[in-house]
Every structure is written in structure tokens, then in C-alpha cells.
Amino acid sequence: MNRFLAAALLLLGLQVQVPAHALEKVVLAIPTTVGSQYADLLYGKELGYFAAEGIDLQLTGFTGGTAVVVPQVANKSVPFGLGESSLLIANVAKKSPLPVRYVYNYLASTTYDYVVKPDSPVKTLADLKGKKVGVVSMAAGNISMTRAQFKQLGLSIPGDVTLVPVGSGPAAWKQLTEGKVDALNLWFSEDARMVLGGVPIRRISHTDNLRPIFSSGMMAHVDTIKDKPQLVAGMGRAMAKSSVACAAAREKCVRAYWAFDPTSKPTAEKEAEWVKGAVAVLEANYSAIDYALKRDPNWGAFDPKVVDTYVKVLEEGGTVPAGAAVPATDIVTNQFVPEFNKFDRLVVQRQAK
């Protein structure tokens, strides 16, 4: 069965059965351990969206974050990877660009915010003057944006706002509930876990000019873009379908993770609790996608102006030299966006349900 027939069957809402030998194994490098937060991609694989493009999707986790994934793509050890863009920007700024571009905007806005206790006197980020803010670590990928955010508000670190490394999980939440920090600057799914853990919070978002900075995009080598455009288009289209399907059937979606890691499947009496937690994490991450789609309804699209904004953020954080020239075209491409969006969302939603 060729990929065109498979795609036609999907449009008709039929399950796709593609012989294994017809598929190309394609690795997507993940900048962390592959957890249930990537269930959307696994659900898309289960529904046959990648197979319809001739792809046997392989998710491979790399500890060490984007800084480890980018070299894997740059040296062609893997064809695709997920991650944020600061490393590519820094290399372009220092006149040592890497042969890598972001081709699909996945978590298409920031997944970080601030949370305070519901009765906190802090109503806006400006109210954090003279306060302590908990962060996962001083080396975390969002610290440059945190510094830039307060600088825009006329607040300095550590003069006006003190950042306190607290890690994540219950130990970090306790720092907030006991008043040892006035706010936590963590990520959306951590917010969801706090709520599930019985910690009441009130969220405060980044300002509107910083919220669109993407947290995770799919990158590819420039040779892959040039020599295998059909593969790039197919990967992005299948990812877009996966996001649509997962949003339409969250509980089915998270259960797809069990096929990837059978040891993660809980016992029957704990299954409902596990599903509830996994769904909360996916919904938290999807809010980053949903925010971006309201700005641009095209799946996978990048706003070049957002790259310019992030360059300024990294300048203010000291990651790149002041005044460095970083053309957005050296970081992202929207070449494949029309191809990514060649599918019927209603059909995908019906399949998922």
C-alpha cells in the first residue's frame, strides 16, 4: 500500500494497515525521557497517521535537553528532534551557525508561567518587586526569559527580585505553601500536578510579547529539508493530526502511552487516577498549542517576529552578544506549513472519538 492510498483511507475515516516493510523507521529525538506527555504522538502512530506517510515513528529520549538533541540532528545521527531554539540562535549570533532549522512549531508558545497562592497580594508580575521567586534551577532553559520579563517591568535580578532554586515536585510546592518563596516560575504541566496534588494556586502569565515564544519545535538538518521534503511534510502533517486527535479523545490518547511503555500501565484500581493525571498534563501542554492557534490557525507555523523577540530576550540574559544579527530564516522555516495542513480536522476528530 503506498502512502497516497493510505492517506485516502484516513480521509475516509478508515483504519490504515500498512505492511511493516513499506515503512521507513524515522527517529524523533526527544530532549528528555519519553513520558506520557508525548502520548499525542504515540496516539497518532496508533491511529495510523505516520504510517499513512510511510513512516514508522520511533521516539528516542535524550537526557540533557535541547543541548544534546541539536548536535544529534546536526551530525545526522537522527533525522528529527524536538527542542527550544536558544542554542541555534546563540550559534548564529556567534557566527557559527549549525546546519539545522526548525520546521514544525509543536508547543508553539511558552509553557512557563508564574503561580502564587490564591490569597497572595501579588496580582501582577510587577507586584513581585521585593519578593522571592522559585525556579527549578539557575541553569534552567527559561531563566533568560524570566530575567527579560522582569527587566521589561523595570525590575532587576537580584536587586528587585530574588530567584531561588527549588527544583520541582512536592518539595518545590512546599516552598510556596510555607511562604519560603512568594511565587513559583515553573511550567504548565507542573501547575497541573500541583492542583492534582491538592495545592491551590493562582496563575500569572508572561506578558503578551513573550508568551508566543515557542517551547518546542521539530528540527531537521538542512540536507533533510532539501533532499527529503516529502518526509518532512509527512512528519509534520502526522504530528498535526496527532494533536487534533489527542485533543478530541484525551483519555484514549494517554492510554496509547502504555503500548510504548507497558510497565507504566497501573493496576486496575489505580488506572482512573493515572489517566486523570496524564490527561491534566496533556491539557496543560495543549494550552500552549491552543494559544498559538488562536494567533495563527495553521498547524506548525512560526511567526518570524517571535524569533526576533527571543533574540532580544537572550541578549538581555547574556546568552548572545548585544546587537547580534540573527535572521529568523537561519532558525525557522515555514516552507512546509501548507503541506502540514492538508487534512480534514473533522475527519481526524471523528476517528479519534
Can you walk through the features of this model?
With 353 residues, this protein is α/β, with parallel strands linked by helices. The chain folds into two domains: 3-109 and 213-352, 3-Layer(aba) Sandwich (D-Maltodextrin-Binding Protein, domain 2); 114-204, D-Maltodextrin-Binding Protein, domain 2 (3-Layer(aba) Sandwich), CATH 3.40.190.10. The protein contains 15 helices and ten strands. The protein has helices spanning 3-11, 39-47, 66-74, 86-93, 143-152, 170-177, 188-196, 222-227, 229-248, 250-255, 257-260, 271-295, 304-316, 337-340, 345-352; strands spanning 24-30, 55-61, 80-83, 100-107, 114-116, 132-135, 162-165, 183-184, 202-204, 216-221. Helix 2 (39-47) crosses helix 9 and helix 5 crosses helix 13 (304-316). The model has no long low-confidence stretch (mean pLDDT 91). Pfam families: NMT1.
